[in-house]
């Protein structure tokens, strides 16, 4: 499924090009994903607990597709380790097995993405 999701992102990037705000790519990608029949949630709050304390913090995953892939969108000069740590944390907190970190501020989106999996990843049905 992440292959199909990436295809949707590449379509968006090809159509609108680099240099826009993250929110623009998010709206376009959500439209593209929904048009392909994916179930899409956006700006999903990730609960954070410290021991027995539930913290009211604003941690939001950009896009979740079919409850199994988190997409974290960036429009930065280059992806940094902190961006990867961010999506891995969202994946853990939300118990989502796959993630795609994508930098739309590039000429080639397929070379500026990082696919991730965690301990929740199993053989997912396609």
From TrEMBL:
<protein>
    <submittedName>
        <fullName>GxxExxY protein</fullName>
    </submittedName>
</protein>
<dbReference type="Pfam" id="PF13366">
    <property type="entry name" value="PDDEXK_3"/>
</dbReference>
<dbReference type="InterPro" id="IPR011604">
    <property type="entry name" value="PDDEXK-like_dom_sf"/>
</dbReference>
<dbReference type="InterPro" id="IPR026350">
    <property type="entry name" value="GxxExxY"/>
</dbReference>
């Amino acid at each position: 499924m992440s292959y199909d999701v990436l295809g949707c992102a590449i379509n968006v990037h090809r159509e609108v090009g680099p240099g826009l705000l993250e929110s623009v790519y998010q709206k376009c990608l959500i439209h593209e994903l929904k048009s392909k029949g994916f179930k899409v949630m956006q700006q999903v709050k990730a609960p954070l607990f410290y021991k027995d304390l539930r913290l009211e913090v604003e941690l939001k995953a950009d896009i979740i597709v079919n409850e199994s892939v988190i997409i974290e969108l960036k429009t930065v000069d280059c992806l940094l380790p902190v961006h990867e740590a961010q999506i891995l944390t969202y994946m853990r907190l939300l118990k989502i097995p796959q993630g795609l970190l994508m930098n739309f501020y590039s000429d080639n989106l397929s070379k500026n993405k990082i696919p991730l999996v965690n301990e929740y990843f199993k053989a997912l049905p396609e």
